[in-house]
Amino acid sequence: MLSDKENIRPKKYLLYLINPKQKYVNYYGQTELSKLLGVKKFMIPLSIPMVASLTPDNYDIRIIDEDYQKLPAVRPDIVGISSLASTINRSYALADHYRSIGVKVVLGGPYVSFKTEEALLHADSIIVGEAEGLWEKCLADFENGSMHAIYRTDEYIRFDKIKPPRWELIDKKNFFQVGVQVSRGCPYNCEFCLVTQLFGRKMRYREIDNVIAEIESLPVKKLLFVDDNLTVNKRYARELMARLKPLKISWGCMSSIEIANDTELLKEMAEAGCFNILIGFESLNVESLNETHKDQNKSASVYRDAIQKIHAAGLHITASFVIGFDNDTVDEFDRIYRFTQETGLTYINFNILGAPPGTELYYRLKKEGRIYDIDPEMISGLFPCMHYNKMSQTELFDNYIATLEKMYSYKSLHEKAVVLFGNGSFQKAYNDGSPSFGFKAKLVFWLLKEYIFTTDADKRQLFRYIISLIRGKKVVIDMGLSFLISMISYNRHIAKLRANINHYRQLISKYDLGPWEKLEQKPVPHD
């Protein structure tokens, strides 16, 4: 017979974990591609289902992603809200709303980890840095009525074994791929990056058995390794590739340019299901690379050789470029454009330099008086958000939009496709299996409608070229069709930017003082 103490069950609580709606979405949010693929969102942030996995069983958890869901009408007991600079205003609005009706609110994420005093004006508690251990303590204190204002630790957690994220709490019909993290930390120290500030420079790795068990439990077969550099530890990477190969998954990852030096590992990655590597080229200006401490990147000539090797392995590159470093002039726009044309880089994350709180860049520019009180949600890579050294903000933004349009004109895409696909390297289908015949038929009909029944001759020419490669067995059909649909989504994103450009220019002009180096009377730095 159970004692009275053993008969007591923990009280049940209703917990909302919320990913706030982002006001200004950059292309890598993949909103247009998601619509074309028939899903609500391309990828749900990993942080929310990960926090759910840390939550005790006596919580009824509701995950809400505001990008495609409305807030439930039922009042929860406690709310956890994830925060980025690009969503912080909405995060605060949500927090204020729930506190006004007596709900306890916890904020976490990169932005509030470095803006804790500001965030405490809107929340009962702030989780600073890594959630593991702190989130569980915060919930225990909530149940006891003794929540602390700030939860932080001076030590990084052990990361060898973690619980699998609670993906079952999200309807898999709503997303295309999921994130998986096998490591934390980064050995590099780029001035504009938050990774080392949040996770340190020492790499911490999960046991591979732990990683594989998580992947085997995933609701989908397409994933992104969200590690900032999946291949920095070559021995770990090789063991991981060997274990991934039989799983029949398709995945992308991030790596440094140095991956190109290991052609054998590139081959192993392709065999294990990799189809895309995001690489932070950042700049073609050596002075800009030195300025931001991007020491692992060398020069455009090294880039060219690396790109050729990666493409030869049948792997796409998502090339990240940033404009607005102190040594950048308007000439950098044309240099980046010409480089991407010559090397066949078609998937490009092109960003205007921002300085999120917590980065070394933020503290340097604040000391110089170059950070001002802009809407933090504009720090999304789409807008100028500080005083730039050699360009005015309007000049920077206008050239940014014009270069995006030029990069993704169908004439430019056709020229790049010849370089990218002409060598016949992209002949391996996705590991997770080909789409159904019905989906392919629907996709082909839609692509015909988009690419053939158009007045844009360059668009028709690109389509005919890709189809000729597929027929000639130089490009596997899955790769060819996914390329065509992706280029449509890029163009739709740019068209939306262009439609709102007058509004955006008005926002930018309010803060535009011209190039910083030419200002005779510079703003006084403030705390």
Largest sheet: 7 strands, parallel
**So what's the oligomer here?**
single chain
Radius of gyration of CA atoms, rounded to a whole number: 24 Å
* Average pLDDT for all residues: 92
Helix content: 40-55%
Number of helices: 21
Q: Any low-confidence stretches, pLDDT <50, length ≥5? A: none
Beta strand count: 15
Strand order of the largest sheet: 2-8-11-12-13-14-15
Task: Tell me the structural class.
Answer: alpha/beta
Distance between the termini: 64 Å
Characterization of this structure:
With 527 residues, the chain is α/β, with parallel strands linked by helices. The protein contains 21 helices and 15 strands. The strands form three sheets. The chain has a seven-stranded parallel β-sheet. The mean pLDDT is 92.
Give the secondary structure arrangement, pairings included.
Blueprint lengths: L3 H4 L5 E7 L11 H7 L3 E3 L3 H7 L5 E7 L12 E5 L5 H13 L3 E5 L1 H5 L1 H4 L5 E3 L6 H11 L5 E2 L23 E6 L2 E2 L10 H5 L4 E2 L2 H9 L5 E4 L8 H11 L5 E6 L7 H9 L2 E9 L3 H6 L8 H13 L3 E8 L7 H13 L3 E6 L7 H9 L24 H15 L2 H12 L15 H15 L5 H15 L5 H23 L1 H9 L18
Parallel strand pairs: 1-3, 1-4, 2-8, 4-5, 5-6, 6-7, 8-11, 11-12, 12-13, 13-14, 14-15
Antiparallel strand pairs: 9-10
Helix pairs in contact: 2-20, 10-11, 14-16, 14-17, 17-19, 18-20, 19-20
